[in-house]
């Protein structure tokens, strides 16, 4: 399981430059004019994980499979997108398909790069995009709400549930707030399922990416400060990157060169690493590992998942015929020097169907189909 993030924002904020750098490709045309990205460009990148590197060093497997992150570079949005302005309809359709939104905001001045709104104001830019998404959601819900109400009055249980879920969402949208602030409690599984089926644009978690100039990459600037304040109020995530620097890093051939270049700028990691870490937190994702001489592999799972669900990520038969999971904590595996040493030290546990998998667990699933 990976996760899928749509890179969105106004035209000319650095979306395609960031996409190119993150995926180390030139698939997206980065040009100084609106709508240079017409079709969504999709790129997958390996998720860097120091724990995987240590496991490989210890086990020395024949192959290594990291978990992957998928980025989708989506065409720039302008005011009126919810009414079909610019490439609005296409933008809205594409964004429905992603799990989370990476909202790139221009946080730098450059007279050579035009801004569609005429000036640099990342908070205003964020609100333009959010407003268009909220308008589209509200129109979508209002069309369905009347029909659901009629069915609910007739005693239709599914309609009654839908009305109860849609009502607070519509109220939130009318108040200028995204649908996610009115999401049902996670304990109410039926309501959560109904909410998910609504496929609302503003129900998706958001990561604000402040695209700053090279000199502001380490500490940020006044523009990015305002974005972080906005994110804090919303309970959202925000990171600072320089798409310009990411593009330069992507051109370097070795890890040593990349690290040396980053350190010369006062940076300890790439923007990709920041985005992945924040993205994982955003979606509640964690990683477990399988390790053997043939393959060491990282698997992404949702925090709180039980052992059978995690087994099913590898193959549905593993979940269907789940017996138990032989489990070793990552720290024990590394400190003791591998599986056999953990067995001898009594650090390998046999966990059943109710075991909640922990981040970093090394797992071996026993099943019978």
Describe the structure.
The structure is a single chain. The chain is of the alpha/beta class. It contains 14 helices and 12 strands. It has helices at 15-23, 50-59, 88-95, 122-153, 157-174, 189-197, 222-234, 243-251, 255-264, 271-283, 307-314, 316-320, 330-336, 339-344, and strands at residues 3-8, 41-46, 63-65, 68-73, 100-106, 206-211, 237-241, 285-291, 295-302, 322-328, 349-351, 362-367. The strands form 3 sheets. The protein has a 6-stranded mixed sheet, sandwiched between helices. A 3-stranded mixed sheet has the order 3-9-8, with helices on both faces. Helix 5 packs across helix 6 (189-197). The radius of gyration is 23 Å and the shape is flat.
> From the alpha-carbon coordinates, what is the Rg to the nearest angstrom?
23 Å
Structural class by SSE content: alpha/beta
Quaternary structure type: single chain
Termini distance? Answer: 22 Å
The main pleated sheet reads as: 6 strands, mixed
Tell me what portion of residues adopts beta-strand conformation: 15-25%
SSE string: EHEHEEHEHHHEHEHHHEEHHEHHEE
Could you list the spans in which at least 5 consecutive residues all have pLDDT below 50?
A: 26-38
Number of strands: 12
Count of separate DSSP helical elements: 14
Overall pLDDT level: 86
Helix content: 40-55%
What global shape is seen?
flat
